[in-house]
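[Q] Does anyone have a clean C-alpha cell version of this?
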Amino acid sequence: QDGYLAPRGRSFDDFKKESLHHGWPSFRPEEIVSENVIIHKKGRMESRCLTHSGHNLPEGGVVRYCIDLVCISGQPLSQDDDRTRILTLLDDTVIYHDEFNATSYESSAESFSGKYNDGSTYVIIALSVGAAVLVIPFCSFVINPMVDNEKG
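[A] Here you go.
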C-alpha cells in the first residue's frame, strides 16, 4: 500500500525540484497516506511494516517529510502475519492515522534536527562559564589564605 502520493497541491515539477534540492523525495502533509505511515512525535517516520522511512525536516515554515528512496516501495504485512503483533507494542510516541490531522500537526523534528536552536544550549554554556569565573576568584581569595594560615 502506498505511503505517499505526489504531487498533491503542487506540480510534479515543484515536487521534483524540491526533492532534487534536498537530495531525497520530499513530501508534504497532504501527500501522505496517513493510514500507511507512522509518524513519531520527534519526526521519525516508519511504514506500517515498521521499516524506517525517513524524517520530517521542516524548512522555512514548511513541513517536509524527507523519505529515503529505498523506502518508497514495499509490501505491507498481511493481518495474519505474525510480525503484525509488533504494532500492538508501539508506545505513545506514535501518531496513528486516525489521530493525524495535517492542518494542526506540529512536528517537534525542528528542535531535534540540529538546524534550529531554542537558546537553551547557550544558556547552559553561559551559566557554566559564569560559575567557573566566580569559583576561580573565590578559591584564590578565600581558600588560599585559609590554607596559608593553616601552614603558617
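[Q] Thanks! Anything notable?
[A] Helices lie at 12-22, 109-112, 120-151.
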